[in-house]
Amino acid sequence: TRFERQRRLLDLIRTQPGIRVPKIAKQLGVSEGTVRNDLRTLAHRSRSRGCAAAQWWVLTVVKALLFRRGR
Questions:
Q1: So what's the pLDDT on residue 2?
Q2: 64 or 70, higher pLDDT
Q3: Spatial distance between the Cα atoms of 67 and 4, rounded to a whole number of angstroms
Q4: Separation of alpha carbons 62 and 41, rounded Å
């Protein structure tokens, strides 16, 4: 499910801080666009609820991944 994929996505970026979108996509078996959409969804959710520390972490990681674009 989408929820499980997003949870796996968060696990990947927690355990492999320098991981890139293409590698995440390959490991999850989805397109890079799906990974980016999931990252945007997670960022949106973190802004609307949760503790400040978790929000900061998710937003920081998501922004880094979205703007890095696999370089």
A1: 87
A2: 64
A3: 24
A4: 10
Q: Is the pLDDT of residue 71 over 50?
A: no
What pLDDT is attached to residue 44? Answer: 74
CB contact set of 1 (below 8 Å; sequence gap of 6+): none
Packing angle of the helix pair 32-48, 2-15 (nearest 10 deg)? 90
Instruction: Quickly list DSSP for 2-49.
Output: HHHHHHHHHHHHHH-TT--HHHHHHHHTS-HHHHHHHHHHHHHHHHHS
Length of the chain: 71
Report the 10 Å Cβ neighbour count for 61: 19
Phi, psi for residue 16 in degrees, rounded to 5: -130, 75
